[in-house]
């Protein structure tokens, strides 16, 4: 009954602060968002092969691909307000952000990037757009990249980009500069960075983009201001992503059953997390708490350390699993255990609360500790990003 009361109290805390409703809204974190979809359909293809329908408000996590059909166009919004407008028949992958550089890959189709300009002049570029034939570095530009599977075309409506055959050449500053009103046509990795740069008429090309619904005006946005436009802002309030802090404190209530009945106790744990990417990560686990064991019953200090992995099951639910080592004081010898957790994430407005945790630890000590074999706990996590 004590465990049930504890669970009820924590659940009411989440509800009273609007946390559970906030999970339907969430936040974008550091990833792009599908802000709008015009006509047709699009789908999200995950890093492990899952397929989901693409819906406005969806955060594109690292390794996910958005693919539009031959009639659909899509608007992606990045945290700094930059935009990527995907044309019909486009396949576009979000890659990891490394050292502040957003990286994206175009497998087919076309993408228009309206990228916010950085104030820091020392940075060569803070966005990369690439395909199998070319890679482009962007600082603050309005451009269109198209790829047919062999050739890469780049047109710059405003600003300046650098295009090269590979990232190493681009990093050395040896790419081909393409400025506003210029078109690097039919580029392949073989002829870059030289390419064939020629001029084009931006005004007539804008009309072509309008037919493909690849203009900001299609979505009711200002064509030059990356922060303008109500549809984009409204969509971002619906975003959610599983985004936990690097260092977390857990407060849990443990309940276990053995031959003497049920035992209950509280637990505080420190759980540092190492984020490898948005969907995958490593999590450390260090805890100490009193536990009432033995016959006659006595209090002992329980300590545990563990290491596991975590994966996002959905945009609000994370699973953790791993192995650890635990000692129950003088009551029993130390030994290994396996743990599994489900964590329901909370929104930033709930800070410092970060999630609701349901967990289980399983002991297999080959007869050394036959009782208990499983311990259950429910708790909340605290932390800051």
Q: Provide the structure class.
A: mainly beta
State the major sheet: 17 strands, mixed
The 3D shape can be described as elongated
CATH topology type of the largest domain: Jelly Rolls
Mean pLDDT: 75
Rg on CA atoms, Å: 26 Å
What is the helix/strand order? HHEEEEEEEEEEEEEEHEEEHHEEEEEEEE
Please report the first level of CATH classification, the CATH class of the largest domain.
Mainly Beta
Helical residues, percent: 10-25%
Describe this structure in words.
With 385 residues, the chain is mostly beta strands. The protein has two domains: 2-6 and 241-384, Porin (Beta Barrel), CATH 2.40.160; 29-235, Jelly Rolls. 11% of the residues lie in helices and 48% in strands. It contains five helices and 25 strands. The strands form two sheets. It has a 17-stranded mixed beta sheet that branches. The longest helix is centred in the N-terminal third of the chain and has 15 residues, at 2-16. Residues 6-28, 228-246 and 274-279 have low confidence and may be disordered.
Quick structural gist:
This protein is mostly beta strands and 385 residues long. The chain has helices at residues 2-16, 19-22, 167-171, 202-211, 230-236; strands at 33-38, 42-45, 51-53, 58-59, 65-68, 73-77, 83-86, 91-94, 102-114, 127-130, 135-138, 142-147, 152-158, 160-164, 176-179, 182-187, 197-199, 247-258, 261-275, 280-293, 298-312, 317-327, 335-345, 353-363, 374-384. It is elongated and about 90 Å long.
């Amino acid at each position: 009954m004590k465990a049930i009361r504890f669970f009820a109290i924590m659940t009411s805390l989440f509800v009273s602060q609007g946390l559970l409703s906030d999970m339907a809204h969430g936040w974008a974190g550091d990833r792009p968002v599908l802000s709008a979809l015009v006509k047709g359909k699009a789908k999200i293809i995950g890093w492990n092969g899952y397929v989901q329908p693409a819906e406005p408000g969806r955060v594109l996590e690292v390794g996910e691909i958005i693919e539009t059909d031959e009639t659909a166009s899509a608007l992606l919004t990045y945290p700094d307000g930059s935009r990527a407008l995907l044309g019909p028949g486009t396949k576009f992958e979000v890659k990891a952000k490394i050292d502040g550089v957003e990286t994206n890959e175009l497998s087919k189709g076309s993408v228009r990037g309206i990228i916010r300009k950085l104030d820091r002049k020392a940075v060569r570029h803070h966005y990369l757009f690439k395909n199998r034939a070319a890679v482009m570095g962007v600082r603050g530009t309005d451009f269109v990249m198209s790829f047919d599977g062999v050739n890469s075309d780049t047109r710059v409506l405003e600003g300046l980009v650098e295009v090269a055959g590979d990232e190493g050449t681009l990093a050395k500053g040896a790419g081909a500069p393409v400025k506003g009103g210029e078109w690097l046509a039919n580029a392949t990795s073989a002829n870059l960075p030289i390419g064939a740069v020629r001029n084009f008429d931006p005004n007539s090309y804008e009309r072509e983009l309008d037919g493909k619904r690849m203009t900001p005006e299609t979505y009711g946005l200002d064509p030059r201001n990356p922060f303008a436009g109500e549809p984009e802002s409204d969509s971002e309030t619906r975003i959610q992503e599983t985004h936990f802090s690097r260092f977390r404190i857990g407060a849990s209530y443990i309940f276990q059953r053995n031959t003497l009945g049920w035992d209950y106790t509280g637990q505080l744990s420190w759980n540092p997390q190492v984020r490898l990417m948005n969907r995958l990560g490593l999590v450390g686990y260090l805890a100490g708490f009193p536990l009432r064991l033995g016959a006659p019953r006595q209090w002992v200090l329980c300590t545990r350390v563990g290491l596991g992995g975590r994966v996002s099951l959905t945009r609000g639910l994370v699973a953790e699993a791993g192995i650890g080592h635990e000692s129950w004081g003088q009551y029993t010898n130390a030994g290994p255990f396996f743990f599994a957790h489900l964590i329901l994430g909370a929104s930033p407005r709930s800070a410092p609360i970060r999630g609701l945790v349901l967990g289980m630890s399983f002991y297999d000590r080959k007869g050394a500790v036959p009782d208990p074999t499983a311990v259950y706990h429910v708790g909340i996590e605290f932390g800051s990003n």
